[in-house]
Specification:
Blueprint lengths: L2 H25 L5 H22 L8 H27 L2 H32 L1
């Protein structure tokens, strides 16, 4: 089985198990519902950061694709860490708006850089 697929399935299983475990702990009265939300969404941010870290390591057929993967990897890794950090420490309303904004900004940086590379390639 592909190494990337195994990692992706491990993250999926881990997130489901974490969500079920947090839900069970909430039902037993050990944690409240806000803590359950923060745990699951913080782990989701760490998953985004992990995928961002994996991006530059994936096969890219040419130099432009490698450049795009490096910039995309950095932007997604940083935005995932910001997302996770906000869900760990910020008030819920700030975490929701700021975290989603961070991930959207990471995606916009990646898309913008890819479009600039495309324009550079067409001009050459």
């Amino acid at each position: 089985m592909n190494k990337d697929l195994i990692g992706s399935l491990a993250w999926a299983g881990g997130l489901v198990a974490l969500g079920l475990g947090a839900s069970f702990a909430r039902q037993q009265g050990y944690i409240d519902s806000e803590t359950t939300t923060r745990i699951v969404l913080g782990a989701t941010g760490l998953m985004v950061a992990w995928y961002g870290n994996r991006m530059p390591k994936a096969f890219a057929p040419n130099a432009y694709a490698r450049q795009a993967a490096r910039v995309g990897g950095w932007s997604m890794a940083l935005s995932g860490l910001v997302y996770a950090g906000l869900w760990a420490f910020a008030p819920t309303s700030v975490a929701l708006i700021g975290g989603c904004g961070a991930v959207l900004a990471g995606m916009a940086v990646t898309l913008g850089y890819c479009l600039s590379l495309r324009a550079k390639a067409k001009a050459a």
